[in-house]
Design a protein that fits this description.
single chain, about 290 residues, alpha+beta, Immunoglobulin-like, 2 domains, 4-stranded mixed beta sheet
């Protein structure tokens, strides 16, 4: 009798040990699954950088900045980018990094090269590889004006912190008219170039083409631009059918409607005004 009780006690202890072991393995597998899931979510929430920008949202007529001949790696150093609005992180902000080269002798414009692009994570941060050099970084997000910042990234192996703060955008409205007559001039092409350089404050406004704002006045000559970052812009306008560009300077924000007077396209040197066709009766009398 005693031997049976002892045997039953041993079997019970063994069963309990096996049960605890199985429970421990199950808990370990559960913890691993949770860690894997959290790691996956963290990967989704982290900022993602890629080598080329997504151009799907840009009109096909907008010129594209040429990419650098060779992409940077983490060994070259990292930019620790942080995008906020009103002190809060901005997730999924689109960030573009442009390397600033010298000025092209034929145009005097900066030789910009696309060095990288990406989107911020849920924490508003993005790590982007970058070689040593001078850069312009731009951040865009829905419902806010873009932000730009110039920076110098030092020699390889360093991490450079960069903070861009987004704000509510301003607007610019007005009309394009014929110079002299004041008649509405529809279909004028308009390009707004922001002055973003603190290194060359007196230089001509110069940013990569993707950072300019382009539009056209309607049939009545009216135009309207929204979502503009505060600051000074060069407004370049051209009447339809001409190559002559007229420029103005404007500061945003502004509540003043602008009247942009452009030379009459028919007054260009070497171009005659079209003659009015004779009436049917006159032609019959010839």
């Amino acid at each position: 009798m005693r031997s049976r009780l002892q045997g039953g006690l041993v079997m019970g202890v063994m069963a309990a040990a096996v049960g605890l072991a199985l429970y421990g393995q199950a808990e370990e597998r559960k913890a691993l699954r949770e860690d894997s899931a959290s790691s996956s979510e963290a990967a989704k929430a982290a900022g993602v950088a890629w080598e080329a920008a997504s151009w799907d949202e840009l009109p096909v007529t907008v010129p594209r900045t040429l990419p650098m001949a060779e992409s940077a790696s983490e060994a070259d150093g990292l930019l620790d980018l942080r995008v906020t609005e009103a002190g809060r992180p901005v997730s999924r902000a689109q960030v573009r990094l442009y390397q600033r080269g010298g000025r092209l002798p034929e145009t005097g414009q900066v030789d910009w090269r696309l060095a990288g692009a990406g989107a911020t994570g849920d924490d508003g941060r993005l790590l982007m590889p970058a070689r040593a050099g001078a850069y312009l970084v731009a951040a865009h997000a829905l419902g806010a004006a873009p932000a730009w910042r110039e920076l110098i990234h030092p020699l390889s192996g360093n991490r450079t912190p960069v903070h861009l703060s987004l704000v509510t955008g301003g607007s610019l409205a007005g009309r394009t008219v014929e110079q002299g007559s004041g008649q509405p001039l529809g279909g004028a092409e308009l390009v707004l170039t922001p002055h973003v350089s603190v290194w060359e404050p007196d230089a001509r406004a110069d940013v990569p083409p993707e950072e300019r704002v382009m539009g056209q006045s309607d049939a009545s000559g009216r135009f309207f631009f929204d979502g503009l970052a505060p600051g000074v812009y060069t407004v370049a306008a051209r009447a339809p059918g001409t190559s002559r560009v007229t420029e103005w300077s404007v500061r945003i924000p502004t509540d003043e409607a602008r009247l942009l007077a452009l030379p009459d396209p028919d007054d260009r040197v070497g171009r005659r005004r079209p003659r009015k066709a004779p009436s049917q009766e006159l032609r019959c009398g010839i």
